[in-house]
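The authors assume throughout that readers already know how a fold can be written as discrete tokens. For illustration, here is how one protein appears when written out as sequence plus structure tokens:
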Amino acid sequence: MEWGSGNSTLWWARRAERVVSFESNFSWYERIARQAPSNVDLFFVDDQLTSLPSLLKGLRFDVIIIDGLNRARCAEFSVHLLGDDGAIVLDDSDQPWSPNDSGPYVITDLMHRLGYQRIDFYGYAPAVIRRHCTSVFFKQRCFLLSGSEPPRRYD
């Protein structure tokens, strides 16, 4: 599942059985909808995410990407939607994502309180001129860390 659609939606679609993505910018939603393959379920939502509970009822996800929308609110939803051995990926985790963007790091604080572990990845992203951080949050078990299959080659 992905909060905020974009090129990552298309990237995940080539690697996952199904991608559920939410977007609040209508012109961006239309652009991604034209490019998305059939295994992508793309939903247009409002910035306050008021229409989400009915859309997500009973669903569980292996990977949840937070890369747009109201990230703090998305994180609150995500902890209830994540499978037992899943992972939450937070893009731009070096930002506080508090209401005034200068307060506490509300998402990392939430994950810490709920017992999530964290791995940080620092570097440059495509089309970004500043270094930033992406963090992966997970509980004790995480399928990403099992090492049960060999690395995939892309020739």
